[in-house]
TrEMBL record, chain B:
Domain ABC transporter positions: 7-242
Organism listed in the record: Rhodopseudomonas rhenobacensis
Protein name as catalogued: Iron complex transport system ATP-binding protein
Family the entry assigns: Belongs to the ABC transporter superfamily.
SUPFAM superfamilies, A to Z: P-loop containing nucleoside triphosphate hydrolases
Amino acid sequence: MRCGTTSQGRSCPRNCKRIKPSNMPLANRLGRRTRRLSASQETGRRHRSNSFGDGPAEGIVLKISLAAPGAAATLVVARAADRAVLPLLIGGVVLLFLVSLGVGAVRLPIGSVVAALFGFGGEIQQTIVQDIRLPRALLAMAIGAIHGLSGAALQGLLRNPLASPSLFGAPQAAAFGAVLVIATGLADVLSFALPFAAILMAFASVFVLIAVAGRNSSLLLLILAGLALSSLAGAATALALNLSANPFAALEISFWLLGSLEDRSFHHLALALPFIVCGGWLLLARRDAFRALSLGEETAQSLGVNVAGLRLQVIIGVALGVGAAVAVSGTIGFIGLMAPHLMRPLVGHDPGRLLWPSALAGAALLLAADIAVRIIPSSTGIKVGVLTALIGVPFFLYLIMRERRRLGGGLA
Amino acid sequence: MTMSDYLTVEQLGIKLGGRLLVKDISFALPRRSLVALVGPNGAGKTTLLRALAGLVPSQGRVTIDGKDLAGLAVRERALRFAYLPQGHAVHWPLPVRDVVALGRYPHGATDPQRLGPHDAATVDRALHEADLIALQSRPVTELSGGERSRVALARALATQAPVLLADEPIASLDPYYQLSVMALLRKQADAGALVIVVTHDLGLAARFADRVLILRDGRLTNSGPPDLALAADALAEAFAIEAFRGAHEGQPVIVPWAAR
């Protein structure tokens, strides 16, 4: 369909621009509708005074009956694309999950991975898949998902695409909590004290961040406060290492801080998963409130959203999820920034619809990163947290560049 | 206070950040009326509106339909008051239709993509009334300021609340839409709503309102039908201006003329 040849209707070119070539039959139908739409718009304009108030009703009826299907059709097309997102993401996560089970010192084809997973095939293969690689892959999936979900929730709460747990210092603070427990010898690495301390510190840092930056805070304030908090957490972690009596423990902790999923067992999974599930549930439960919040806090409140309660729920959810994730994997950053950003255009920018896809995309990203660190040849093995930061930081710089105009002129 | 009064405010005081912004305000308003809330900058108009919408804490007593506002749950209040703030910020590029559909949020229709038939029809009507049918699939962030303010108005209409609180709904509009929006608010009032509009346009206030409330330094200094409340001495006292006063087609005309 070429709009220029049909008529001069105002909305016509815009309608057509939205249609992908793959949808030609629909586009044809739509084209016919837009032609009628522009005719009706002419009517609308000629009777401009009718569009409000007390004019004769005929013009109004004509406008609704002809114009509504045409303009609404573009929405229908966009929403059909929405519905394909979740199944595709789930398929991708399952595939990456299976690949993750097959990659390592011993490479297994997907067929034998599936067989070993369900208790068939050789005993060694079963041990490799079920005992060594399964907890690692499950952790990658859960931790990636909670990072993606936390990022999407924070971005929804603060209505800003640059918000993410790692920029606000939450993982760094959680790491400090965990390090404190290890370095002071309060508990060993496999006790529940670890996730508790990490969650507590993550909660404190997000709480302080939002308290310091204020309710309707600009991004600049949030990032500055986040920078300060992550520096503080970093310094506190360094101090804990500094004062640690055992130099070997210090070395081990600093490696652990880099973020890795190597050699994690079902015990680690049991340590983190309950908190991750609780945190994820808290965040997912408020999908609709994020949508109302896109109109600003005051309007959301006037629509019946308890904004203060929502803020607290998001802080607790992020702290539970990120804190528990950090307690078993160390700091793995930038998944929470990337996942929502990649998914947002696919769900029509709806912050409520963004949460599930972001969780799945986060899971896929971390699974992929964890596969990559096992494939990339290196002498000691690259830490997955290092890889996500290496990819994430340039991505963040790109986002800043894209948002530069908005950041430069009057902060949102 | 008569039986027909729908919204009553008694000795309302609002203190924010240690400053008393609104002092001892009392009034009672019936349904089926359009009320213009006017006054100089900083008089407390927006604060008063926000207090009525339940966005800031206040002292005193407000009742709606005989019920004490303080005893209403957040959602109950949301069903009774539609609030249209200044600025019309939308933070994500959502389609116009979805933004308007958020007006159905207090009714439990929290997902614009899964509206029931009644909610969808209400949204369609609101889109139509604000002349937005042709724009309904456009991302709201791509629209002009005037178009965005009409989207915000349509969102407030879709709530179908008995009280509509509009904070400068015509501030960024061209004359055509200023008149259209005021006519639309007038129509809502005639259909049974109580519409309270904050505006600086004394001419449109005089032309469309049933009643004008003048706020100055946080106090209600004058209240009544437009020709009385906006009389020469009242304008001189509240705004320190002189105005041309006349009539056209049987309606009052007020044009601010000179600062005193």
